[in-house]
Amino acid sequence: MMMKESKDEFTTSGDRQNAGRTVPNGVSRDQTKTLSLLQGLRLCQDAWAPKSPWDSHGAHAALWGRPSGSFLVVQGSLSQDQLLCVSVADSGEPVKEFPIITTGTALQLTTSHLAFPDLFQLLHFYTLSRDVLPVCLLVPSWVYTLINLPDHLVPLLGPKTWLCPSSDLQANSMTSETQGTAEMPDTVLCTIQVTAANGALCFINPLYLQEHGDDWLAHSPASPVNRPIGLRRDRRLSTTRAWEGRGLKLRSSTLAEDNSSSLDHDKGSSSPVSPSTPEGVVLRRASGTSKEDPLKRASTDSLQSPLPQSPHRVSWIEDKIWLNSPLPSSLLQPPCLELDSLSVSSMEEEFEPASSPSLPSPRFQLADKMKNRLSAVGQALGGLVSPQRRLSKRVQEMAERRAGAFAEAVRGFVEDTLAGGAAPGGTCTEMLQDVRSALTNLREMLFDCPEIQSITDSVGDIPDFELDAMLELALHKVALKPVYTHLYVCLKTARRDDGTLQRLEANKSTLENRSLEELEGAAGAGVPDSSMMDKIQHRWTTMHEAYSPSKKVDTLLKVCKNIYHSMNANAKPGTVFGADDFLPCLTWVLLRSDLAILQVDTDYMMELLDPMQLQGEGGYYLTSLYAALFYISSFQPRLAKRQLSAEAHQSLSQWHRRRTLHGNQSRHSQNRRTIRRHGPLAEDGNSSKESSLSDRLQEALQGLEAELEAVKEEEEGRAGREQAQVPETLDLTCPERTDGERTTGNHRILN
Amino acid sequence: MSLRELKVCLLGDTGVGKSSIVWRFVEDSFDPNINPTIGASFMTKTVQYQNELHKFLIWDTAGQERFRALAPMYYRGSAAAIIVYDITKEESFQTLKNWVKELRQHGPPNIVVAIAGNKCDLSDAREVSEKDAKDYADSIHAIFVETSAKNAININEVFIQISQRIPVIDADGSAVKGFKLRRQPSESTRERTCC
What compartments host this protein (chain B) (predicted)? Predict the structure, then answer.
C-alpha cells in the first residue's frame, strides 16, 4: 500500500498540475541550495554511506561523540536493507539506528510513513524535519558547495571528512558546523514553515478555527526567514509537534530538482498567495494506510494545541476534499474559471454547500481574512471541485440556448408539468412519476450530448453513479426549479384529498404529549432541547425551500445528525444508538414539526430522487422519515399493541417495489449509451401499470376499518392460532396483480 | 477490482444487540477514507472478498413490535439480512422465526439470511441452546453464528459468511448492482494520498 502510494507520488510528481496542488510552502530559500544539497549528497555518497567493511559497529564508533544529528548510512548486518545511524548525543544511547526499508522503488524509515524515491531525498528531508527521528540530520556545510569542488577532489571525501566538523574544504571558507550553531546565512532550511506574512498557502483545519478563531492568522511571524539552520535543527519538534511537523511529507524532491522550470512557470500563473519559492515539502496527511482517523487526529491536534505561534503551522486537510473529487491528472488544469469554488461567498444560492459529500462546510462565521484564505485554497483545489460547477453551468447554458434540442426538451417538460395538475384523471403520484422519468430522459439526452461528454470525459474514470448524480444535480436547476412549487401544491392537494394530512394532524395531537419512552424509545437517549429544536425547525424550512431532492436529502441528514447529537448528549459514554432508539426519537421530533410540509417534502424526495441514491445513507434516513410519518399518520390507539394494517404494509411495499424496479433498471445498464435509452420506455410501461403510492395509501385506509374488525376477532381467538396468513402481494414476478387479488390476500402480517 | 454494494438489513427484537454487532464490525477498521456515517442506524464497511470489494450498507431496523410493520421498507432490496436474537431470551428466538417467515414470503427472492445468537458471553443465563438454533438455521439454510458484540466474538464471521454466500457476479454483471471501479489502482490510491 505504502509502496503504491509513494510510487505513485513519484511518477506523478512531475505533472504540471502538481504545482497547483502541491503547496509550495517554503519561503525564501534559494532553490539552488536544495539542488546543491541533493547533488552534494550524491557526489559524496561514499563519505556518508561508506561501503563494507563499514557496518553498524563501525558507524557507532565513528559517530560516538559527534554532534547531534551527525549520521552515516551503512549496510545492515542481517538484511539487504540499510541502516541510518544517527548521533543523538544522548548519554544513554549516543547513537541510534533506523533501518531504511526498500519497498519497490521507494525508501522509507521503518517507523515512518514517509517514503522517498531515493536515499538522497530521504536524507535531505530529514535534515529539514525530524519526523520519527529524535533530531534532524546534520549535514556538513561544505556539502552545499560540493558541486563547485574540482572533480578530482571529490572521491577523496570519506567518512572521516564527513564526520569531522573541522574539515575545511578549500572551495568554501564557510565555518563548518558545530552543534547547533552552524551559520548558513543564505541557506535557510525552513521549508516547513508556512507563514501568513509571506502569503504562503495554508491548509487550515476547520476544527481549529472553530476552537480558536482565526485571529492568529494576523500575527506576523517574527522572522520566518534567515533562521539559522542550527536553530531549526535544535528545536525539538516534539514539543510543538501538533503544529510543527505533523502531516508534512516530502512530496518528492524531484519536484524541486527536475521540474524547477515548470514550477517556476506555474508559480506565475497560480494563486497570488503562493509563495515565491516552491519546495518539495507539502502538507498532507501521514498515510492512507494509517489506521488512525486523520479527522479525529486533526481535531485532537488542534484541540490540544495552544494557540500556535508564528510561523503558523497548518493542520490536516480533511480527506473529503480529495476523496470525492478524484480527478485524473488531465483535469487539473489551472482552475481559472472556478477560482472561488470553495470560498464561502460563492456557495450556491441554496443554503449550505452543495453536494455535501465533497466539501467541508465552513458553518462558522469567518473573518474576511479567512475567507480570502479559503478562497486561496479554492484556487488550489479549483480543479478538483469544478466539474460539478462546469457541468451545471453548461447544462444551464444549454437549457437557455435558443432552438437547442435540449432546451426544447426542457421547455416541453416544464410546460407539460405545469399543465399536468389540471389534467383530469391523473393523480399527483403519477405526475411525479412522469417527472422522474422525464428527468431520466433528460439525463440520457445530456449523456449523448457532445458538449457534456467533453466535460464528463475530462472528469475521467469515475463510477457511473457519481456521474449520474452530478448530472442529476445539474438537471435539477433547469428542470425542477421552475416546477417545484407547482409540484408542492399538487402533492399537498393529493395528501389532503387522501386524508393523510388530516390524520397526521389528528394523531399529532394524540401523540405529541407522549414522552420518548411512551413512543417506545429507550431510556437513556436524550431528545433535542429547545435550542436544538429551533435549529431543526430551521433546517426543515431550508429543506422545504430546496427544489433539488438531493439537496433536500442532504439537509435531512443534517437534521438526523442533530438528533443523534441530542440522543448522545446525556447518554452514557459508549452507548450505541441504533434504529431502536433513533426511530422513536425521530418520531418525537416530527411530532413537534410541521407534519404537512414534511409529508410533502418526503413524497417529493421519495418520488424524485434518483433510485440509485436510495440505498445509501440518504436513502436510509429518508426511509426512516417516511416510516415515522407513516407511523404517525396511521397510528391507531386500538391497534396500539399490534402492527399497522396489512394494507398499509402492502402499499409501502408497492412503492418500494416500484422504486426497486426502476433502480435495478438503471443499475443494470452496462452499456449505458444504448441501454439507457431504452430505460425510460420500460419505466413508463411499468409505472403506468402500477398503482401509485397515494392510491395504495387510500386503499390502505379504506381497509383499516375492516382490519379493525378482523383484529378484534383475532384477539378473541388468539390462543392456539396458527401462523398468520401472509399476503403475497410482494411477489416480484407478478407485478400486475389485480386489486381483487390483493384485497383477498390481505389479512394480516406476522406478529 | 470491482466494488459491490451490498445492502444488509438487521432484524430482531429490541435490545438483542443489533446495533452493537454492527458497531463492533465497523469500529475496528475505521477507514479514514470513508466518511463516517452520522449514526449507528446506518453504517458501512468495505471488506475484500476474493477479488471483489464488498461494501456493506447496513440498515438497522427498529425492533419494537409497534414498528415492526415498517420493516419491509427497510429490508426491501437487501442482499442479506442478519436476524439477531438474544441467547438469554427465548422470546427473541421466537421473534426471529417470525422474521424468517416474513422474509421468505415478503423479502427479496434470493436474500441471504444470517442468524446471529448474540450475547454468547452470558452463557450462564442461556435460554436458547446452540444446537436448537443451529438445527433451525440449517433447516432454513441460513448462516448461523453465536456472537458476542461485547467480547467481539464471531462478529467478522457473520459478514465473511455473507460474502461467501452472495451470488458470484455474472459475466455481464447483471446479477448484482455493482459497478466496476475502472480507475487504475495507482490512481485510486492517489486519490487518497494526494498531498
Answer: Cytoplasmic vesicle, Phagosome membrane; Early endosome
